[in-house]
Design a protein that fits this description.
By secondary structure, the chain is of the alpha+beta class. The protein has one domain (about 1-80): Glutaredoxin. It contains 3 helices and 4 strands, in the order βαβαββα. A 4-stranded mixed β-sheet has the order 2-1-3-4, sandwiched between helices. It is globular and about 30 Å long. The termini are close together. The relative contact order is 0.27.
């Protein structure tokens, strides 16, 4: 499972959509939280981020703690899933 924190208008987040769609099609559970327009989600991101990335997109596996900051290739996200 991966949690994705993103911004609705973020160009980097938009470019990640095909990769996330592919992972979902392969059975990876992805929870998505928009943080630019939702303060509750932004606070949730802070709890997971702990100052490591500071921006979106931010991906984290809550079970292992592994994370990815920013745009990333499919292989990198698949590893943390």
């Amino acid at each position: 499972m991966i949690i994705e924190f993103y911004g609705k208008e973020c160009p980097h987040c938009i470019r990640m959509e095909p990769i996330l769609r592919r992972l979902k099609e392969e059975g990876v559970e992805i929870q998505e939280y928009e943080v630019w327009h939702n303060e509750t989600n932004a606070k949730k991101m802070d709890e997971y981020d702990k100052g490591r990335c500071g921006g979106v997109p931010f991906f984290v596996n809550p079970e292992t703690g592994k994370f990815v900051c920013g745009e990333a290739p499919y292989e990198e996200l698949k590893k943390i899933a």
